[in-house]
Amino acid sequence: MPRPRALRIATGALAVMGLVLVVMLTGITVARQDVGHVGVVRNGGPLDKRNIRQVLLPGQRLTWTGWYSQSPHEYPAKHVELLYTVTSDPKRGARPSVDVVTVPTRDGVEVGLEATIFLHFVGDGDLELLRRFDTGFGTRRFESHDGRRLKPWEGDDGFAAFMDSVFRPVLENDLRREIGRFRCDQLVASCMLLRHASRPTSVGAKVDDSAIINIARVEEAITQSLREDLTRTLEAPYFTDIQFRLSAVRLPSGVQAVIDDVHSKYASVSGARAEASRARYEDARNRILGRTYQRSPALARIHAIRAAPKGATIIINDGEGRSPGINLGGG
Question: What is the mean pLDDT of the segment spanning 99-121?
């Protein structure tokens, strides 16, 4: 074989071997998992089906994930406690995982809720359920708070977008149903003042026990309904250990202004009553002192001396001329 031809053949063979080596090196995939997430790995080769290849457990060390496999789809681990906050403050509602919720009471008052839901995602607690979630919800995109469309495994924003799109409707429906069973005065004691304001004769009436919010009852009802409705809506128990904690019930600004005005009027009435009571007691005191001084002029003189300003000069005379006056001066 001529030397030039042999060089060309050898160069071509080396090029092919180099190309195969590059393909093999770039097709090798390994991954490790942090302790707060569980990773679902799917096949990614050009001739492979996109089936789930394996699941990386939280804290798993560097692991071979096959040829051309996709990057792990990361979901919260079972032991990680998730928080979903609902608030009546629109300024906080633009943040991820924060929902603005306003619902009506039984008597038609729109109240804002300040609450936090504590829950756990299935994660590594049930790998079969996790694979089912990745195959179902993990293939869909949900709109985030800033307008992006993300899948649940695309970072914290992606999972927050899933929560806002899927978890929120169930939560708001349960809140509307449970809060709608109460009157405003059963949730916020100050709402009782609105009734009092419409009946002037009841000014100063006391709020009975039924007007005090039963936080435990509301929390228990919504916790139970969330557990049942989420499982039924999502068709699987993807969330566990759900706890609803209600921190505050906010009234609309107009209603709160009326209540504040009624409060101030009640305060004025209470102040006037206190002044009237004080005047009656002072009048009774003066009458008693007057009778006492009439019976004992000497006691009256003693009290007059004690009441004299410091440094004053006092002349005491019995008024009958039988005893000289007493000049008390100096101070």
Answer: 87
Name the residue among 296, 302, 298, 299 with its Cα closest to residue 314: 302
Q: What pTM was estimated for this model as a whole?
A: 0.67
Residue 107 structure tokens? 């008597």
Identify the three-state secondary structure at position 107: coil
Q: Is 175 exposed, middle or buried (0-12, 13-18, 19+ CB in 10 A)?
A: buried
Q: At a CB cut-off of 8 Å and minimum separation 6, what does 180 contact?
A: 103, 104, 105, 106
Q: CA dihedral in degrees (178, 184, 188, 191; nearest 10)?
A: 180
The dihedral of CA 233, 234, 236, 241: what is its sign?
Answer: negative
Name residue 157's amino acid. D
Per DSSP, the chain holds a count of helices (H) and strands (E) of: 9, 14
With cut-offs at 50, 70 and 90, classify the pLDDT of residue 137. very high
Write phi, then psi, for 227 (nearest 5 degrees).
-60, -45
Residue 285, H or E segment: helix 253-295
Q: Which two tokens stand for residue 176?
A: 């509307």
Mean pLDDT of the chain: 79
For the chain, give the percent of residues with pLDDT over 70. Answer: 70
- CATH class of the structural domain 81-251: alpha beta
| Structure tokens given for 198 | 């419409």
More confident residue, 203 or 89: 89
